[in-house]
Each structure stands twice: as C-alpha cells, then as structure tokens.
Description:
With 201 residues, this protein is α/β, with parallel strands linked by helices. The protein has 6 helices and 7 strands. It binds flavin mononucleotide (FMN). Flavin mononucleotide binds at residues 9, 11, 15-18, 89-93, 134-137, 169-170.
Amino acid sequence: MQALFVNCCPRGDDSRTLRLAHAFLARLRERIADLRIAEQNPYLMQLSPVWGDTLALREKLCDAQDWDHPLIRPAAQMAASDLLVIAAPYWDLSFPSALKIWMEHMWIRNLTFRYRVDQPVGLCKASRAIYITSSGSFIASHDWGTLYVEDCLKTLGVPSFHAIKAEALDLDRSDPASILAEAKERALLLADETAALYQKA
Ligand SMILES: Cc1cc2nc3c(=O)[nH]c(=O)nc-3n(C[C@H](O)[C@H](O)[C@H](O)COP(=O)(O)O)c2cc1C
C-alpha cells in the first residue's frame, strides 16, 4: 500500500502539527505491514505558483498525457497513491501559501481529473485523505483551510476525508501539552481505523 505524506509544516522539528502527523504515520506503519510512505514537502520541492508560461506548458503536457515531465510528476505520484496525509499549521485563517501552491500543481487534466459535460470528475486512486492541522486560537467557523482541502480532494476523486485539529495552542489560558496529547489520541484512533479500512479492502 502506498501513502503520500504532504509535509507543509515550515517550522520543521519545532512544529506541533508535524509531530501529530508523525504520530499518525508511525501508528499506521505499525498497523500496515506493507505500507510505503512517500513524502512531498512543497518548501523543499521549491514549487512555484503556476505562471502563465507554466500554464501553457501544462496544457500541452495534459493534451499529450506526458505524465513523466517534472512539472507533472508530483501530481502523478499523488494520483497513484492509496492514501493521502496532509499536514499544515493553521495560518491566516487557512494554511501556509505553500500548500495552496502544492494544490495548484495537483489539478492536472486527464490525470487527476477530467471534464465530463463541463464538470470536473476526479481520477485519483486514493480512497481516503487525512488533514492534520494545529492552531493558535479556536478555528470555529473560520475553517477555510480544512474545507478547501476537503473540497479539492473530493473533486479530484478522493471520497473520504478526515481532519485532526489541535486548537487553541497559543492562548494564555491554554494547556498546549494536554491539547496535543488529546489530539494525538484522536490521531492514533484514526490511524487504527484507517488501517482496518485498508486491510478490509
Ligand atoms: C504566520 C502565522 C500565521 C498564523 N495565523 C493564525 C491564525 O490565523 N489563527 C490562529 O488561531 N493561529 C494562527 N497562528 C498560530 C498557529 O496556528 C499555531 O501556533 C500553530 O500551532 C502552529 O503550528 P506549528 O507548531 O505546526 O508550526 C499563526 C502562526 C503563524 C506563524
């Protein structure tokens, strides 16, 4: 089984979001013997926003179905993965811009989606996506990041979406250690449930 981990946590080892994601992935590794995890880090990949020139090239590649071009390879890897795990902190009411740029690179006509009667139809293989985030205060109704990631991935053909959020880590009255411990418990339960789902399939 092939999972793709999208690590969009710019603070690296200091990132609480990344720690939660690593806990989730470690439990998944314990539960699924043949699990392989590829990683894409939009910062290390130095993905650029899709400029006009890039768009023109991309349209040509989509027409030719040239999925081995470096511009397309990240999306080809995503499209072929069985499970997606995306980790990003809550920034400015959503997530860091690097994740938006990564997502922009995932919309590849004829590979991750195609049009049917003017509507996009998802072509990705993954049956589940997990989104892991953490925030300084309460996200409440400002959950644009989670909703955006969920909507994109569902449109690209991934039917099941689950989010793990550790909220209010930076408030004066908060106890971040206990918030993170509780979020980790939820992440581990979700990893168990995810592993059971894939083993049944
Ligand atoms: C640039 C930046 C923007 C942030 N924007 C928000 C925000 O809009 N709302 C919020 O509750 N917390 C915000 N925070 C706080 C982070 O969400 C919080 O510290 C989070 O746990 C950081 O995750 P990390 O430890 O994985 O880096 C922001 C932090 C940074 C550095």
